[in-house]
Amino acid sequence: MDYKLVVAVREDLDMSKGKMAVQVAHAAVISAMNCKRKNAKWFRNWYDEGQKKVVVRTEDVAGLHELSEEAEKLGISTATIDDAGLTELPPGTTTCLGIGPAPNSIIDQVTGKLKLW
Amino acid sequence: MDYKLVVAVREDLDMSKGKMAVQVAHAAVISAMNCKRKNAKWFRNWYDEGQKKVVVRTEDVAGLHELSEEAEKLGISTATIDDAGLTELPPGTTTCLGIGPAPNSIIDQVTGKLKLW
Fold this sequence. Notes:
Order of helices and strands of chain A: EHHEHEEH
Strand content of chain A: 15-25%
Radius of gyration of chain A: 13 Å
Distance between the termini of chain A: 20 Å
CATH class of chain A: Alpha Beta
CATH topology of chain A: Bit1
Helix content of chain A: 40-55%
Oligomer: homodimer
CATH superfamily of chain A: Bit1
Structural class of chain A: alpha+beta
Number of strands of chain A: 4
Largest interface: A-B, 27 and 27 residues
CATH architecture of chain A: 3-Layer(aba) Sandwich
């Protein structure tokens, strides 16, 4: 597969399995829809080849902001997710960042060194 | 919020945090896109009001098939996710089911009694 969507998740929040899954799903849906509007070809190629998704680790919220800036510079769609804070986290906590979909060769410049969950 | 998207995940597979997050994200993106084509109004209302997502438990794959049939009878979009099986699971393992988005009053008829993750 030539395209992927990456979701970077904060390690320092220690979210439960269900909580993390919902946050990653928010990031994937919104980042994919942003890409669909901004770069329909990338979206379509990614969707049709099987929608590869990868979840990686970032230390803290500053890490997410850096990744977001780097991705935007390369023309990659992003989606920063703030939790409504009804359960585990304080309201407005930034939990994760959706990046892409984008061609592997471009997105790897931003996320290639991050560890998988 | 009047709409939600529910993802039912098999308890018997004991997936890791990262694995489960990716499977739930697959289900959310595909079920949402199916709804967008099939019932654009439900998709738009759900998207604009904040895209509520809930992750619930099912015992096994038979449970997912039952939920899928019930949802389809009520006109709710679904997405059954089979894992490519490159890491934790045998190839083709059905991991989870995306249901909706749909109005709460309709989707609760299918998923209202399931336990949260």
